[in-house]
Design goal:
Layout: E1 2-5, H1 11-22, H2 32-39, E2 51-55, E3 58-72, E4 92-102, H3 111-125, E5 130-134, H4 137-140, E6 146-147, E7 153-155, E8 167-171, H5 176-179, E9 185-188, H6 195-198, H7 200-207
Parallel strand pairs: 7-9
Antiparallel strand pairs: 1-2, 2-3, 3-4, 3-9, 5-8, 6-8
Length: about 220
């Protein structure tokens, strides 16, 4: 097994891998490969944290990281005060990752966790102190993630007091939130993650360059699109 930075020569192979990994998982078909295709030219993309995993000289895994942001609430004044209801205007840099892809033939064999742990350690070495992401806690808890609500970090699409089961977070550098004066904040995913929904015609033209696959409506998908 080998983990290294992605190169331009890998792009199409990685997009094929991502398509195979996500096909019919969260929706009929998938869009993650197009997100990746478009993200490499996005200013939020972090090329130093764009890794592929190889086994027998074949790419079997990939993960990418992106800049994101937190919008904090002002700190409460006085002991026992409630948090203010209005957020401050200034956002604070944060980070996220994904998509993370493992070829279907290699899933449930520990490869995804090894790839993620390697990438998170590299992120920590770069000084990245806090990560938010959307995923299954049953898997990501093994990489140190927990519900973001436990850190008073809220998901932008849900009520402030909601415990969102798929919204997870981790301090890669212990105490990072406190050191940056964050007691409570709202997280919004990078805009680039929604590129397929915002540009459906461009996405369909891109998807047409791949071999046809059957789109299925399956139980557990997040959307019936």
């Amino acid at each position: 097994m080998n983990i290294r930075l992605e190169t331009p020569e890998d792009y199409r192979d990685v997009e094929n891998l991502t398509r195979e990994a996500f096909w019919n998982v969260y929706r009929p078909g998938c869009t993650e490969h197009y997100v990746l295709n478009q993200y490499r030219n996005n200013p939020d993309f972090i090329p130093e944290l764009d890794f592929v995993m190889e086994e027998d000289n074949n790419i079997i895994g990939h993960v990418m990281f992106s800049k994101a942001s937190l919008t904090p609430y002002p700190s409460p004044k006085g002991k026992g005060s409630d948090y203010p209801s209005q957020q401050v205007e200034e956002s604070i840099p944060s980070w996220t990752f994904g998509p993370i892809s493992i070829h279907p033939d290699y899933k449930r064999k520990g490869y995804g966790l090894k790839l993620l742990q390697f990438a998170l350690e590299k992120a920590r070495e770069m000084g990245i102190g806090f990560i938010c992401m959307e995923g299954n806690i049953d898997f990501y808890r093994h990489a140190g993630f927990d519900l973001a609500s436990k850190l008073n970090i809220h998901y932008h699409d849900f009520p402030r007091d909601a415990e969102v089961p798929f919204f997870l977070a981790q301090e890669l550098i212990p105490g990072w939130l406190k050191e940056n004066g964050i007691q409570e904040a709202t997280y919004c995913p990078p805009k680039g993650y929604f590129v397929a929904d915002e540009n459906p015609e461009a996405f369909e033209a891109y998807e047409a360059t791949f071999p046809k696959k059957v789109k299925l409506h399956l139980p557990g998908q997040l959307t019936e699109q």
